Amino acid sequence: TLQITDLSTPESGTSARARFAADVKKGLSQHDKQLSSRYFYDGEGSRLFQKIMHVPEYYLTSSEHDVFTTHRQTIARQMASQGDFHLIDLGAGDATKTRIILEELLEQNAAFDYVPVDISGDAMAELCENLQQALPELHSHAVVGDYFDALDWLDEHKPGRRVLLFLGSNIGNFNPEERQSFLQKVRSHMRSGDMLLVGMDLCKEPETILRAYDDAAGVTAAFNLNLLHRINRELGGNFIVEQFKHFALYNPQKGVMKSFIISQQDQEVTVQATGQTFQFKAWEAIHTENSYKFTLALAETIGQENGFEVKQVFQDKNQYFADVLYAV
Ligand code: AVJ
C-alpha cells in the first residue's frame, strides 16, 4: 500500500521564500558573511547532490552503502527485536541505502511499515512510485514536510513503537548546539523500546576528507555555487556567479569540513527580495556549510547527553563511516 501525506500548505511556500530572503539579508550583512546549507536543496541543488553521491572522491555514500550491505541481517534483526514498528526515515530522499534494510526486513517477515519523511514532495512521489514497483508487498506512507512537523503528525496519527533513521551523515551539518537541540527534540518523540539509527562520517586522513568536498570534476563546486544561482532565481539577485569560487577547508582539531564561496574581486550584488545591495571585497568569503566528522567516543557522548544508549555500532571495512544504533 502507498499513501502520501503533504503537511505543506500554499502559505508555507510564501513564508519559506520570505524566510529565505530574511536569512540571506542577515547572512550577507554580517562581518563574516554566511548562508545556510539548508538552502542548497532546490530542484537543481538536489540534482547536483545526487551527482555528488556518485562522485568517486565522495566516499560517504558508498561507505554507508557498504555498512548496510555488510550488516543488513543484524541491523534488521535489531530493529525488529522488540515487535511491530514504524520505520521513520528522516530526510529519506531517494532512499537507496534504506532499500537494503527494507528488503532484508521483508525477507525476515518483520512487522513494520515504512514512513519516509522529506521536505521535497517531488522526491517523495518518485520514491513511492519506485518502491511500489520494486517492493510491492511493502506498506509505506510518505510524509512531506519538515522533520518536526512530521514527528508531531506521527505522534497523533501513527502511535506505536518507532525506529527512526537519520542517515548519510546529515547530522554533520549541525554545529554542536544545533546537534544537541536536534537530538533532544528527536528524543522527546521517542519512548522506551524505540530506536534511532544515525549515519556518521568518521574522522580520518584529512586529505581524504578534503578531496570529498573538492572533487576534481567540480561537482561539489557547482553544488556550492548553485546557492548563488538560487538567490538569483528566487530572490531576484544579480550575482555574477563566475566571479565567485568554491573553497573547502578541513579543521582536523574540530573535526569539521567547512565550505566557502569566495569573491574573486571587489564587487556589489543586489538582491531584490531583500531590498539591499551587498559589498564584497576581493577574496572575501561567504561560509556556506559545516560537515562535522565524528569519533565513536563522540557518538557515545552525544547519545548519553541526550538520553540515548549506544546499542550497536556498524562500520564499513575501511572504517570510514559508522551507523550508530541508539536505544532509549
Ligand atoms: C548531505 C549533509 C551529508 O555534508 O557531506 C556534500 C552535503 N556537501 N558535499 C555532507 C554535501 C558537500 C552532505 N550531507
Short description:
The protein is α/β, with parallel strands linked by helices. It is 41% helix and 26% strand.
Written description of the protein model:
41% of the residues lie in helices and 26% in strands. The protein is an alpha/beta fold. It has an eight-stranded mixed beta sheet, sandwiched between helices. Strands 2-12-9-8 form a four-stranded mixed beta sheet. Strands 10-11 form a two-stranded antiparallel ribbon. Helix 2 (43-52) packs antiparallel against helix 9. The radius of gyration is 20 Å and the shape is globular. The model has no long low-confidence stretch (mean pLDDT 96). The structure holds N,N,N-trimethyl-histidine. The site of N,N,N-trimethyl-histidine has 12 residues, from helix 9 and strand 12.
Helix-strand blueprint:
Layout: E1 2-6, H1 10-29, E2 33-34, H2 43-52, H3 59-80, E3 85-90, H4 96-107, E4 112-118, H5 121-134, E5 140-144, H6 147-157, E6 162-166, H7 176-188, E7 195-201, H8 206-212, H9 219-235, E8 244-251, E9 256-263, E10 267-271, E11 276-280, E12 285-292, H10 296-305, E13 309-315, E14 321-327
Parallel strand pairs: 1-5, 2-12, 3-4, 3-6, 4-5, 6-7
Antiparallel strand pairs: 7-14, 8-9, 9-12, 10-11, 13-14
Helix pairs in contact: 2-9, 3-4
